[in-house]
Amino acid sequence: MCDFIEDQTAEFKEAFQLFDRTHDGKILYSQCGNVMRALGQNPTNAEVLKVQGNPKSDEMNVKMLDFEHFLPMLQIVAKNKDQGTDEDYVEGLPVFDKEGNGVVMGAEIRHILVTLGQKMTEDEVEMGVAGHEDSNDCINNKTFICFNPFPFSHHSP
């Protein structure tokens, strides 16, 4: 697990307290993700729900969470930071499919893979993209998910 140093923990507690509207040392479950994001994490709502034990939606604005229970949740989220899953890539592709026709521009994918997240080298990207662009320099989403050099290569079209 990701262990925080004492100074970090004190900083996290201070931020946690800013979200404590009733000044009783607790926040609502619904605020947990916002506190994590204020502390530099970027969990999805699904990730937050998972570390909370998948509470029911009607519990989110009722159930309370103290700092001692929040910190281990933050540690889990911090440990899993930047570990995208295959599903993350599949869910993210429609954002780049501007016309909704199942293809993305090869140049845009190259730019994203070289500049964002766990950056790849241009050679790594070219090796993966080679042979997958059509005559319009577009890549079929399913093909994109399946090519070998990338971390999401275990899907079949």
UniProtKB/TrEMBL annotation:
Domain of life: Eukaryota
Residue ranges occupied by any EF-hand domain in the UniProt entry: 7-42
InterPro entries documented for this protein: CALM/Myosin/TropC-like, EF-hand-dom_pair, EF_hand_dom
UniProt keywords, alphabetically: Acetylation, Motor protein, Muscle protein, Myosin, Phosphoprotein, Repeat
Membrane-spanning residues: none
Coiled-coil stretches noted in the UniProt entry, renumbered to this chain: none
GO cellular component: myosin II complex
GO-annotated molecular function: calcium ion binding; structural constituent of muscle
Quaternary data: Myosin is a hexamer of 2 heavy chains and 4 light chains. Interacts with SPATA6.
Function: Regulatory light chain of myosin. Does not bind calcium.
Protein name (Swiss-Prot/TrEMBL): Myosin light polypeptide 6
Organism (species): Aotus nancymaae (Ma's night monkey)
